[in-house]
Amino acid sequence: MSPPPYPDLLNFLLDAVCVVDEKGTFLSITGACEQIFGYKPEELIGRQMLDLVYPPDRKKTLGAVGRLMQGQLQYDFENRYMRKDGRIVYLMWSARWYKDKKIRVAVARDITDRKRTHGEQAAAQPGALSRWRLSGSPPCLTPPDSAPILLSRQDYIVLATLMSKRQAVSRQEIVEALGHDFENYDQRRLDTQMRRLRRKVENACGLRLPISTLRGVGYRFYEDVEVQD
């Protein structure tokens, strides 16, 4: 196999592309390895990926790995890693398991600056860390005592609609808030979005999103929440 024509360009990637075996041992790392982890790629080859995970995040990381090994793609999974210099970094991952090759390929992006900015803003609000908090600029959901989770605009609209009331919110209200005609809207799309949103939150922080499904009615957000534009 011939080498890539422009190998030096890999050093300019914002992400680190990690390949590990089924036991989680680093096989190769390209891209922003040293910028993110503080290690040169050759220092990590042969090491266990989990050894670098910040200890409080290891349980949820193993849960994500388990889902991945069962064939479920992992998008936007967030956890914290320990750099070589001892600093903690927040990473966002997308990963896939290649069963035939017995390797996992994961792409990591450093989101530390965004996380810390939102975390400091949340900490400045009395009692904010003990309850859910939804912010619109940029769209993010901060679970109790956890780092903010970045949201798509669509996810933000769904949550903002649910959190606007203490009682149940109908499916029609949510669909119309999204800018669609309820009569012509495929209800399965809404169900799929709610499942994906629940999974995203659980993957990111290990907490269950407090939304109950009310059959034949809609949904209800049932915990204390603060909403900011």
TrEMBL record:
Residue span, OmpR/PhoB-type domain: 121-223
SUPFAM superfamilies recorded: C-terminal effector domain of the bipartite response regulators, PYP-like sensor domain (PAS domain)
Any GO MF annotation of the entry: kinase activity
CDD domains, sorted: PAS, trans_reg_C
UniProt DNA-binding region: 121-223
Ranges where the PAS domain occurs: 2-72
GO annotation (BP), single: phosphorelay signal transduction system
Gene3D superfamilies for this protein: PAS domain, Winged helix-like DNA-binding domain superfamily/Winged helix DNA-binding domain
Keyword Secreted belongs to the record: no
Protein name stated in the entry: Histidine kinase
Organism placement in taxonomy: Bacteria, Pseudomonadati, Pseudomonadota, Betaproteobacteria, Burkholderiales
